[in-house]
Fold this sequence. Notes:
A hairpin with a 2-residue loop joins strand 1 and strand 2. Helices cover about 55% and strands about 10% of the residues. The relative contact order is 0.07. The protein is mainly alpha-helical.
Amino acid sequence: xxxxxSESEEEYFARQDAEVRRKLAVEKRREMEAAxxxxxxxLHFMHCPKCGHKLETMTYRGLAIDKCFSCNGTWxxxxxxxxxxxxxxxxxxSVVSLFKGEK
Length: 103
């Protein structure tokens, strides 16, 4: 004769099972989010944000910048504008004045 589990035992195992399933669901969601982020990066990496064509890396004043030869856009990574500004006197001020509407 087998002993039937008590209600408290069934509840304990149900909670354990639910916790394991919740952890698996959280892990699966994280994996899916990481895969989605990677797919998005792979889709857009080194593509022009303006026209979508392939960007090519070229050297300008010793700095590798990204250039789109389709729309003629030039794209800088973080810190590259400041690096270029340090190499040319007044460069950063002239760029800032473009955004302020100064002449």
